[in-house]
Amino acid sequence: MAATWCLRWGLSRAGARLLPPPARCPRRALHKQVDDTEFKSIYSLDKVYPESRGLETAWRLPVSQEWQDGEGVSVLLPVCTFCHGIIHFVCVFFFRTDRLTVSYCRSSGPGGQNVNKVNSKAEVRFHLASADWIAEPVRQRIAITHKNKINRSGELILTSESSRYQFRNLADCLQKIRDMIADASQTPKEPSKEDTKLQRIRIENMNRERLRQKRIHSAIKTNRRADVD
């Protein structure tokens, strides 16, 4: 027992001698180490979207030989995730964060000092026509579907103030961009003959019911009139 204790004591003393001597001023040494580095939050765009930095194009891959001029079409990249025992297939893509203009301002609505003093509302905008990281057919569908969010300069503007945290609102705006591109990339399916027939029957039934309600209302108004001899 005594031999084991002596062996442990000797190893601890030897390890202590091998360690480098402590700095006289740890704070000064720490500042010296971080002088040449730039601090970035864990929620910065470079860390949240590391694959989007330095990419020439994003979410745009050539898939056929029909594009003779080197252009590509937007495609979804399926990613398999496992959560709570269920396998989810999520379509993700990467885009150029340096092409986006991000700004912050005060959030609207009642709140107090946090709302009145903190720029928590996020606004993300980019020029849609010159966004070469999005395929041309997708840009055309976005311009038609979301024309109310495009200003006179042709910039697509997205805002978010759902959270009191700035980085969450920024993430919400970026997610809105993904959803827009994903919806615009899906080609509309042609309805079958059965679906077309059901749609026509629904429209006819709606018109028939509307006319019946109008006749009932007209009869009620007619019965209220006083007969004048």
Task: Name the features.
Double Stranded RNA Binding Domain, two-stranded antiparallel sheet, 229 residues, single chain, 42% helix, 7 helices, elongated, alpha+beta
Ranges with pLDDT <50 over ≥5 residues? 30-36, 53-91
CATH architectural arrangement of the domain at 53-185: 2-Layer Sandwich
Q: Quick one: CATH class of the domain at 53-185?
A: Alpha Beta
Helix content: 40-55%
Provide structural commentary.
The protein is an alpha+beta fold and 229 residues long. The protein is 42% helix and 14% strand. It has a domain at 53-185: Double Stranded RNA Binding Domain (2-Layer Sandwich), CATH 3.30.160.20. The protein has 7 helices and 5 strands; from the N terminus they run αααβββαβαβαα. The longest helix is centred in the C-terminal third of the chain and has 31 residues, at 193-223. This is Large ribosomal subunit protein mL62. Belongs to the prokaryotic/mitochondrial release factor family. Mitochondrion-specific ribosomal protein mL62 subfamily.
